[in-house]
């Protein structure tokens, strides 16, 4: 029951009352240390009161709990060394990481905790010492891997076509070799080494991604933009396309160019994931994701309706004409593709103007140009501009959340020998088995002097206001107005003089 009350207090809107009640309830806790403590008992979601404060974005309660956990090591003049307990914050030995909970929650207030002590210092320590070097090495390794795969695709086994053409539009010159013919020469053996590296890399990607999907859940794993959700979809699809290409190569099935081309596009697009390691490029990856999966997905439904309607109209208009003089509307699939190009203004009207065109072509093309080019494309630009404006106001906050998510991901997947635990064990200071982060805080004496000046001026203004109120109570209506104006002018003059003294001293 006491643990339930603690969780309820974390959710209270009155932060001051919640902190006092929280301290009162803990004062009656018999087992203040160890697993029996009320503060360490999780709820049904596996969240302790400390983690719940972070997930809910309750910065007041979070700072209150951190102040209870800190230990002042020593103080010398303006310098103070403080040990912060990071047992629940550090993701090194936590199944449900506090940092991962913060970046995966949908509440924006929770991300503000990433800028508070000691979370900010812990993330900075992990990222600068281990996260950034490992992430840059991983980015370089992935680019070299994609170059290897691209070269294997460029030099894939082909042979000249021997059969006759069945149509005047048939332009095929080379065909795919059979499996027995693909690995004969020395160049084929070099390509085989690259193909083996590509397949092994695809298997490693699936082995690393599938456990996280099972642990977190597909909806949360693929749906969180900060966690890189769309990029996880891209890299898993890429790995599957590689395995499909391998099966088609082993069975000598024609058409391997389809999964191979998909894999090339997806593999190189996934390079954008590594832009999150740089503050200049990181926010742009989130901006691209929000535009693609927000604005563009909604716009594609409207675009599909317009293209389908006008492509059908164009095909019907030229259906009775000679196919050899129809330009790019000779069949229905080509009409759809041509209308899509017209929609994006990639090409102009592709009809053959050397022959007489149907009258309805000009009418339909005029309507299409007005609706598609002038209306819908400008609507898309306006939607993307609004998304850019919203993301630009949060870019620093989003980049910090990206860094935290990347750090937690690397810490989980790298061996323990490559990523030692951050902080100091409490045994060195006689504080038990808990882990602490040492932070040096410099107290600025001028700051305290300015605060004393400010409090003095506030007190002076309150005294003057009280005197003015007494005059208002003792005098009549006319004297009340004069006393009020006098007290206000005196207050403004005294306050102005006080702030001038403060500015000069500063």
UniProtKB/TrEMBL annotation:
It holds the Pfam family Ion_trans. GO terms for cellular component: plasma membrane. One of its GO terms (molecular function) is calcium channel activity. Residues 135-394 form the Ion transport domain. It is a multi-pass membrane protein. The keyword Cell division does not apply. Keywords: ANK repeat, Membrane, Metal-binding, Phosphoprotein, Repeat, Transmembrane, Transmembrane helix. One of its GO terms (biological process) is calcium ion import across plasma membrane. It comes from the Eukaryota. Its main location: membrane. This is TRPV5 protein. It comes from Grantiella picta.
């Amino acid at each position: 029951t006491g643990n339930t009350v603690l969780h309820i207090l974390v959710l209270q809107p009155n932060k001051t009352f919640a902190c006092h009640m929280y301290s009162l309830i803990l004062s009656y806790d018999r087992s203040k240390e160890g697993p029996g403590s009320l503060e360490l008992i999780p709820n049904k979601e596996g969240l302790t009161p400390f983690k719940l404060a972070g997930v809910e974005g309750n910065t007041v309660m979070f700072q209150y709990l951190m102040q209870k956990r800190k230990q002042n090591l020593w103080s010398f003049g303006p310098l103070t060394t403080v040990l912060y307990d990071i047992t629940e914050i550090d993701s090194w030995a936590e199944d449900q990481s506090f940092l991962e909970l913060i970046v995966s929650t949908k509440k924006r207030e929770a991300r503000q905790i990433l800028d508070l002590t000691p979370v900010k210092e812990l993330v900075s320590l992990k990222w600068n010492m281990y996260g950034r070097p490992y992430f840059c090495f991983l980015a370089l390794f992935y680019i070299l891997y994609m170059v290897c795969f691209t070269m294997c695709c460029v030099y894939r086994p082909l042979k000249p076509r021997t059969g006759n053409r069945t149509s005047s539009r048939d332009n095929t010159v080379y065909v795919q070799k059979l499996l027995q013919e693909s690995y004969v020469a020395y160049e084929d053996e070099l390509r085989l080494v690259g193909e083996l590296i590509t397949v092994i890399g695809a298997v490693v990607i699936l082995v690393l991604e599938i456990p996280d999907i099972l642990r977190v859940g597909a909806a949360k794993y693929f749906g969180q933009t900060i966690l890189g959700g769309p990029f996880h979809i891209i890299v898993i699809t890429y790995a599957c396309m590689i395995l499909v290409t391998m099966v088609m190569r082993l069975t000598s099935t024609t058409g391997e160019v389809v999964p191979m081309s998909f894999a090339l596009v997806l593999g190189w697009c996934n390079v954008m994931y590594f832009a999150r390691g740089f503050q200049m490029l990181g926010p742009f990856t989130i901006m691209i994701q929000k535009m693609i999966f927000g604005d563009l997905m909604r716009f594609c439904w409207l675009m599909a309706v317009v293209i389908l309607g006008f492509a059908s109209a164009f095909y019907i208009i030229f259906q009775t004409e000679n196919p050899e003089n129809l330009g790019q509307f000779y069949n229905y699939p080509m009409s759809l593709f041509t209308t899509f190009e017209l929609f994006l203004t990639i090409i102009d009207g592709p009809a053959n103007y050397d022959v007489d065109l149907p009258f309805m072509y000009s009418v339909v093309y005029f309507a299409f140009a007005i609706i598609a080019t002038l209306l819908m494309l400008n609507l898309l630009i306006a939607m993307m501009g609004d998304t850019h404006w919203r993301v630009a106001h949060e870019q620093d906050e989003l980049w910090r959340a990206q860094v935290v998510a990347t750090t937690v991901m690397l810490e989980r997947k790298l061996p323990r020998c490559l990523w030692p635990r951050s902080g100091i064990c409490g045994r060195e200071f006689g504080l038990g088995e808990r882990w602490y982060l040492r932070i040096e805080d410099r107290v600025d004496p001028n700051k305290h002097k300015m605060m004393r000046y400010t409090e003095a001026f506030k007190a002076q203004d309150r005294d003057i206001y009280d005197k003015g109120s007494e005059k208002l109570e003792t005098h009549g209506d006319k004297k009340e107005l004069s006393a009020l104006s006098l007290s206000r002018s005196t207050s403004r003059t005294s306050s102005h003089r006080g702030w001038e003294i403060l500015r000069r001293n500063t």
